[in-house]
Amino acid sequence: MDAFYASVEQRDFPEYRGKPVVVGGKPDSRGVVSTASYEARQYGIRSAMPSSKAYQLCPTAIFVYPRFDAYTAVSKALREIFSRYTDLIEPLSLDEAYLDVTEDKLGIGSALDIAQSIKDAIKNELNLTASAGVSINKFVAKVASDMNKPDGLTFIGPSRIEAFMEKLPVEKFFGVGKVTSAKMKAMQINTGADLKKLTEAQLIAQFGKSGRFYYKIVRGIDDRPVRANREAKSVGAEDTFSEDTNEDAVMHDLLKQISETVAKRLEKHQLSGKTVTLKIKFADFKLITRSRSFATPINKATIIYDEAIKLLEEAAIGTTQVRLLGITLSRFYDDVEMEKPESNQLEFEF
To answer: CA separation (Å) from 188 to 166, 176, 198?
Structure first.
């Protein structure tokens, strides 16, 4: 979806239309931007930016708190639209999913036409716009979906994939974040063509097991299937302090609240995990994590809290001021690597 949260706000409140809208914390709070409308993005406002910074860039912007009930309702309506065309739907978030249309339920006959039909249904029924990428695998479809936003539709066929990937800047590769992108550029790897010059062994030596993934996707190889019932990999929660702090009592109190939230979410989904991860974001926005694994799965708030306290102590933050704390529980399943069959099916990502 295009600027999803902000677009829903502009749809539901006509007075917001055509104006810069920022969904997230108020400008005088310590929140961050969840989504910015395209009008707000013209001022340089982006997701994850501190709300105070967004206000500096555009004092006339309309700041609103997220309405997750409204976004969830739209997400359910989107899923219903998708299901008319295929049963193989892998959600990535409330507003994003992979669709495998090998089994064409309506007999349309073209993945490109299916994507356009879905876009039309979203616009006509929900009064919102979506951008779609159409290709032969998940990675290329995902990249294509970001090419012509908003309201875009990009098709990258098999004969175009390698040339397309060679021209693509490394920061546009899905899964390549700021840190990896900076490392690649320091190595004079600026485009897919540069990345393609390295052997698989060289990439693994530089980027670990991700190197094997980069070696394949720069050649347009991605055999991951669309998983209609994708299992959750982690459950977590986090919160930001009203003021930066390094006081143990204050941090312990917040960790207790977060632990209880995580435990409730685990109970809701009937999950237990073996690995607890503590996330610490400092006043200068530096981020660190600390993890510990158990021999058997856990899901109780008291155990999660006790472990988070130990991890906080091991982090030895001293007098450094902390902005945010978060806890994540993972390793719900002991995944077994399986050889995936070759696939030439058409998939597209909304």
So the answer is: 14, 15, 11
List active site positions: 96
Our CA angle for 42, 46, 52, nearest 5°, is: 100
Residue 251 tokens, joined: 């941090």
Structure-block tokens of residue 345: 């099916």
Q: How many CB atoms lie within 10 A of CB 5?
A: 27
Task: Give start-end residues of each CATH 3.40.1170.60 domain in the chain.
Answer: 4-66
Q: Which long-range contacts (CB under 8 A, 24 or more apart) does 338-343 make?
A: 340/223, 340/224, 340/225, 341/223, 342/223, 343/137, 343/223, 343/225
Instruction: Give ranges for CATH 3.30.1490.100 in the chain.
Output: 234-330
- HSE-up (13 A, CA, CB side) for residue 122: 28
Digit-coded pLDDT (tens) for 44-88: 999 889 899 999 999 999 999 999 899 999 999 999 999 999 999
CATH code of the region 4-66: 3.40.1170.60
111 token code pair: 């993945």
Residues of the chain falling short of pLDDT 70 = 230-232, 333-350
Looking at domain 234-330, does it have CATH number 3.30.1490.100?
Answer: yes
C-alpha Rg value of the chain to the nearest Å: 22
The verdict on whether residue 95 carries a ligand-binding annotation is yes
